[in-house]
Amino acid sequence: MNWRRWQVFLLLGLLPGFIPAQPSTVAYNPSPQAALGQYVVLGWNDLGMHCMNKNYAELCILPPFNNVWCYAIKRGARPEITSQGVTLSYRFPTNTYSAGKVDFWTYAPSLFGVTLPANVGLTGHGLTGVLDWNGSAFEVTGVPITPFEDAAPTVEQPYQLVEVTLKNTITGAQLDQTNFVVPTSVEIHCDTCHHEDNETPDYNILKKHDEENHTSLRSHRPVLCASCHSSNALGTPGVPGVKSLSQAVHGFHAGHARNITCYSCHPGNQTQCLRGAMFIAGKTCVDCHGSLSQVASSISQGRRPWLDEPKCGSCHDANHSENPGKLYRNSTGHGGLYCTVCHGSPHAELPTAQARDGLQMTRVQGQATYLKDCTVCHITVPTGAGPHGFKPVSSVEKWATYYQ
Ligand code: HEC
Ligand code: HEC
Ligand code: HEC
Ligand code: HEC
Ligand code: HEC
Ligand code: HEC
Ligand code: HEC
Is residue 138 within 8 Å of 71, Cβ to Cβ? Predict the structure, then answer.
């Protein structure tokens, strides 16, 4: 038995309100998937957190922009990843509008050169709609969701829940429905340090930038930082000779700011975007990404920001690692499935410390952890080996045996 895993499991059980009290030795839930029919829909977000600005009048680091992914799996001895004959629609039941909660729509024309209808994002998608088959999964890009729910439009809730409904396209019959986290946060606290009398924090940043770099950002507001500093997040090439945004921001602050942490700018002390299995195991940003100066210096040594990131395989074994040359979120494993459908988003690898992250797996397998119940897809436990060569002994023992 892997004792360290038990330790994680026990620790989780102690978090209030997370896993309902249950004896940790009997982890098997008799028929959690009784409600599943012929199909199961499972979804995930490609990033464990999306950061966006709240105010766009002066500067923009990132726009509202979330990507939502789903599989419609036809259950059986050989589960099928269905691409046709089904329609997947999405909505956010408690978060139905974005315009007004953030002022992005006022400034999108000057920042991105497009006039967008209210509540429609940069790829033309809104807060409700359908997911399209992209060749490997169903996806909708650029959903402009904000962390502000209708009932409390000034209170940040970074763990928004999307509802995806799977229907037979011809008959309209509902086949399955799921809810999962689409995370987004405005907790980019440049204001902790950038505040001076009579200036907004954003204006202060532009002023400092102009004074030191002979630019005139203040007379060209709002400013898209990535218009001069390349960013692979937005796909902007930047101005030749100017550092990438990641290198400029991390490298400069490593040399100039005291007591700065990753959560000074990334979300954040309240949001706690790092919340997955490795957070529970005690890892911090620096264990995987290196220090602030290393995030920058690795770029001068050839690392491509956003594209070259830490690897699961650098701590786990080769049997539990990404496909060569691919990011975790783009890698596939058992049955050709994306790792993320079973394990969740980066920084939110199941089990996580955020109760909402566990809802989907609790629904299908009765446990808020990574997908390990074969019957969710196979209906009965296969006799052959499954993910990573794992082989449960019998259907009754299917939970307990994972820990042997
Ligand atoms: C922990 C404090 C801290 C935080 C948080 C912080 N900064 Fe800074 N920043 C500084 C310091 C210190 C300087 C040096 C200039 C000064 O004396 O104010 C600076 C300078 C800058 C400059 C001017 C660069 C130059 O060439 O002089 C820019 C641009 C900037 N910060 C952007 C940002 C942005 C964007 C954020 C949020 C994503 C941010 N900062 C968050 C402390 C901070
Ligand atoms: C008009 C082009 C332009 C825009 C827009 C722009 N920058 Fe810059 N920035 C520069 C240039 C040029 C430099 C100096 C050369 C360099 O560092 O590559 C610079 C330098 C910096 C530095 C200091 C880097 C260092 O190592 O000294 C930081 C930090 C920075 N920019 C952040 C930002 C942020 C944040 C924004 C958005 C608010 C932004 N920049 C928008 C052109 C721009
Ligand atoms: C001063 C603000 C600031 C601090 C502090 C900061 N970041 Fe960032 N970080 C940013 C901004 C702004 C971006 C977006 C850059 C872009 O759009 O390309 C970013 C992007 C990133 C990225 C994606 C781009 C890349 O280089 O691969 C990583 C990874 C990252 N940060 C890690 C860290 C880690 C780890 C820490 C703490 C050691 C940290 N950051 C601290 C502002 C900050
Ligand atoms: C257990 C290792 C691990 C820890 C701890 C970790 N990261 Fe990451 N980070 C990754 C991996 C892996 C990726 C690449 C995700 C992918 O392949 O899709 C990544 C990617 C990123 C990115 C790029 C955007 C994205 O999601 O791909 C940012 C920004 C980032 N990390 C910031 C942070 C910050 C800030 C912290 C701490 C709060 C942190 N990371 C902690 C492993 C880690
Ligand atoms: C910095 C090292 C490190 C990296 C990188 C890393 N892990 Fe882990 N992981 C650990 C440690 C330590 C544990 C806890 C001990 C254990 O169970 O092996 C753990 C545990 C796990 C668990 C088991 C959790 C449980 O409750 O049984 C899963 C699943 C997992 N990691 C997935 C991933 C995935 C997916 C990635 C890449 C996105 C990744 N890890 C990247 C160190 C790492
Ligand atoms: C069909 C679901 C499924 C898929 C897809 C999947 N895994 Fe797993 N993963 C599991 C199960 C079940 C376990 C527990 C059994 C084991 O540890 O081998 C696991 C365990 C892990 C662990 C933790 C190992 C430890 O030491 O505790 C890591 C890391 C991991 N997987 C990474 C990946 C990566 C990377 C991919 C994609 C290349 C992937 N997984 C795809 C189901 C899956
Ligand atoms: C998320 C859905 C999913 C889960 C969970 C899952 N599988 Fe699979 N499995 C698939 C898919 C998809 C295939 C590929 C079917 C094909 O090749 O047509 C597959 C194929 C297989 C095959 C090969 C079947 C054949 O006839 O070639 C075996 C054996 C298998 N899985 C065992 C397992 C075991 C054991 C588990 C639990 C530990 C498991 N699977 C969990 C989706 C899943």
Answer: yes
Closest C-alpha among 274, 326, 237 to residue 48: 274
Which residue, 293, 290, 284, is CA-closest to 250? 293
Whether the CB of 253 sits within 6 Å of ligand 1: yes
Measured between alpha carbons, how far is 229 from 238 in angstroms, rounded to an integer?
A: 5
Instruction: Give the nearest ligand 4 atom to 322 CA.
Output: 17
pLDDT digits (tens, 9 = 90+) for 274-322: 999 999 999 999 999 999 999 999 999 999 999 999 999 999 999 999 9
Query: Which portions of the chain are predicted below pLDDT 50?
Result: 1-31, 395-404
Cβ of 208 closer than 6 Å to ligand 1, yes or no, is: yes
Which ligand ends up closest to the CA of 274?
A: 4
State the closest ligand 4 atom to the C-alpha of 331, by its place in the atom list counted from 1. 17
The dihedral sign for the CA sequence 273, 275, 277, 281 = positive
φ, ψ dihedrals at 120, nearest 5°: -110, 135
* Whether 386 contacts 380, CB under 8 Å: no
CA 182 – ligand 4 centroid, Å: 16
Give the angle 245-346-306 at the CA atoms, nearest 5°: 20
